[in-house]
Amino acid sequence: MQNRLIIAFQKLSNWLVPLAALAIVAGFLYIAPPGILNKVDAIGYAVCHRIGERSFHLADGTQLPLCARCSGMYLGAVLGLVFLSFTYRRSAGTPPKGVIAILVLFGLAFAIDGANSYLYLMKSVSGGSRLDFIPNLYVPNNLLRLFTGSGTGLGMAVAIFVSLNQTLWKDWDTKQVLGKPRDLLALTALMLLVDLLVLPEWDWVLYPVAFISAGGVLMLLTLVYGMLWTMGMRQENLFMNLREAWLPILAGLTIALLQITVIDVFRLWLTHTWGGFPLG
């Protein structure tokens, strides 16, 4: 009986998912502010505090959709997924222990810098009297936010890449992802190069960064929800290419955009601004 219901819902979803996607896209475009950059801001608005002092800015003062840490994280995730898609394609074997250890260290650096930065912020906005007894390790800055964020983004890319290949593809390979140490070195070097290009805040770099980082939010959510949809529909390892996997991908995109829209509406109701969280 349960299998029959799932099969029936699978057939029905061929029509429901595209209709839901159109409705959600229309809803998001309606609630987001006018202008292409403002639409991109609305994506970042759902996942990031967007505090101005912790973000990069264009020459005219326009703030990027995500703070420095989130920009680095989603840039790292996008770069990592693109790199792995070209170098490892359908590989889904767990990376070597040494690679995992390095990625864990990247995550620990992210956690330590994030905690130190949050404590610094709380001391700044509360007058410092109640929290002065807790020392800061160092004065936080956007350079460290960008670097630690991008390192974590690489770890996210590896985890999602392995999970996606094991979930979607019929012909996934057991070859270890990043099994060659030089590949992790090359990927990290590419990420450092991107970070160094971002730091001077040149407009010709920040414009694509704005779209890639915000697009990374939507892409990662789409992939995660697409995998969950595939597992819920009991369609694991049935697909040979993206054309065959159009429905779970579209379903993932629809759920991702629904989440972004709902959070945007709630945050706008709560703060009455499309800007960063008020600190006062």
Straight-line N-to-C gap: 57 Å
Q: Given the C-alpha coordinates, what overall shape results? A: globular
Please count the helical segments. 8
- Helicity level, as a percent range? 55-70%
Mean pLDDT: 93
Strand content: under 5%
Overall number of domains: 1
Uncertain stretches: none
Class by SSE composition: mainly alpha
Radius of gyration computed on alpha carbons: 20 Å
Secondary-structure element order, N to C: HHHEHHEHHH
Biggest sheet, strands in spatial order? 1-2
The total of beta strands comes to 2
The major sheet is characterized as: 2 strands, parallel
What tags apply to this protein structure?
280 residues, mainly alpha, two-stranded parallel ribbon, globular
Describe the structure.
The chain is mainly α. It has one domain. It has helices spanning 2-31, 36-45, 68-87, 97-125, 142-168, 181-198, 203-232, 246-271, and strands at 91-93, 173-176. Strands 1-2 form a two-stranded parallel sheet. Helix 5 packs across helix 6 (181-198). The longest helix is centred in the N-terminal third of the chain and has 30 residues, at 2-31.
